[in-house]
Amino acid sequence: MIREWLDANPIGIEDGLRHDKWCAMMWPRLRLLHELLAEDGSLWVTLDDNEAQRGKLILDEVFGEHCFVTNIVWQARYSVSNDTDVSLSHNHILVYSKHKDTWKKLRNELPRDETQAKQYSNNDDDPKGPWRAIPWDAPNVRENLSYPITTPSGAVRFPPRGRCWSREEAKWKEIVAAGLDYYGQNGDGAPSYKRYLEDAGTVVPTTWWPHTNSGHTDEASKELAAFNLDVPFQTPKPLRLLEKILTIATRPDSVVLDSFAGSGTTGHAVLSLNKRDGGNRRFILVQLDEENGKANADNLTAERVRRVINGYDFTGTQKTQFLRERLNWRAIEKAGDLVDKVQGIENLHGHEYDRITKQVKDGELIVTGERRVSISSSGEFVIRPLPDVTRASGSKQRRFARQLRASLTYCSFATQRTEMWRCRPMAMALGPFSKLASTT
Ligand SMILES: C[S@@+](CC[C@H](N)C(=O)[O-])C[C@H]1O[C@@H](n2cnc3c(N)ncnc32)[C@H](O)[C@@H]1O
């Protein structure tokens, strides 16, 4: 029904009802994803600024407000667009779980990244290696946590005004006995203790995901270009982003469902994580066949996964599409802006590619970077088909949902591309991919 309605009502960028139509498209899909999600699983939704707030309201309604875990801000772009008022740097990742308290206990922490490790140093040549001073004082005023501490120089310290020590005196004495107490470089500053990098372990995920440790869209385009699929696709996600999400949200036996799979980054990331930790995560990728026949489940999503699975040696021309813009009257009126944009691309990326091509095809201007590359990887995989529920009745689909119990579902949207969501029911493009071995 929704498909017929959307087909009869093409959605343009100036359509006053575009947000209502987006909500109408999302509602049944998120309801279905909620049904498919395991009781201890989580849903991760990447949205840009166009629909993030509406996405949050729909998700609050579908899951219940109490199931909202967080809104992660991912720095998707590091470059600045000079042709706009405020250059967009981030995307939102909305996270929901069916039972927030249980999920909190199940979710994983992240390995310490380079920036976090740099907070540790070794300015006193400690044989245990890099360390950092953790202050002993904490907020609050508590009488039993306000005991005196004597520094090596003999000065007596109490907690700063309005604060107390973080633990009881007995704990501090253990720290002193272990030789971990520290009072600043002069030896008579505020009490703190040494925490060594080698004992620091993993870190709790935060809501700020900079491109330095979560990847960016440029990197994602390059990763996809390495497969030389010759299928234009503008909105891939970087492998590092998906690996990070999977690290937090999955166990080695999890089932991962990406219902808007695009270039199949999620499948690639599952395979890569399985390889790293010997896990047996399985994945289901859903991708609709775009009507123009360009990016579809078989020639894009499945093909990338196939190549990761079989390994790929590639020597040839790698192409990255930087711009694809319809040349309508509006674009012609603002031709100067378009030329500036193309020149900006040439300035920014010219040195990374052998050449930047500009082509007008089927009423669109396409700007592509091309370079010769040589890549090699290998792997060993078996693809096991899942039951085809595309033509199944409602009750059969519900049975499948119960069997599936996905541990994590992920969807990502670039909502300014309105044509993307003039789409068919999700189940029509259910992909038959499941991992049994490991690769990449
Ligand atoms: C932003 S892209 C996803 C990018 C993906 N995470 C990647 O790394 O390539 C969204 C994708 O969802 C697809 N799509 C849109 N509506 C869909 C639907 N109803 N069912 C399945 N896929 C859909 C679009 O064709 C597009 O490929």
From TrEMBL:
<feature type="region of interest" description="Disordered">
    <location>
        <begin position="110"/>
        <end position="130"/>
    </location>
</feature>
<dbReference type="InterPro" id="IPR029063">
    <property type="entry name" value="SAM-dependent_MTases_sf"/>
</dbReference>
<dbReference type="Pfam" id="PF01555">
    <property type="entry name" value="N6_N4_Mtase"/>
</dbReference>
<comment type="similarity">
    <text>Belongs to the N(4)/N(6)-methyltransferase family.</text>
</comment>
<keyword id="KW-0949">S-adenosyl-L-methionine</keyword>
<protein>
    <recommendedName>
        <fullName>site-specific DNA-methyltransferase (adenine-specific)</fullName>
        <ecNumber>2.1.1.72</ecNumber>
    </recommendedName>
</protein>
<dbReference type="InterPro" id="IPR002295">
    <property type="entry name" value="N4/N6-MTase_EcoPI_Mod-like"/>
</dbReference>
<dbReference type="GO" id="GO:0008168">
    <property type="term" value="F:methyltransferase activity"/>
</dbReference>
<keyword id="KW-0489">Methyltransferase</keyword>
<keyword id="KW-0808">Transferase</keyword>
<dbReference type="GO" id="GO:0032259">
    <property type="term" value="P:methylation"/>
</dbReference>
<feature type="domain" description="DNA methylase N-4/N-6">
    <location>
        <begin position="13"/>
        <end position="291"/>
    </location>
</feature>
<dbReference type="InterPro" id="IPR002941">
    <property type="entry name" value="DNA_methylase_N4/N6"/>
</dbReference>
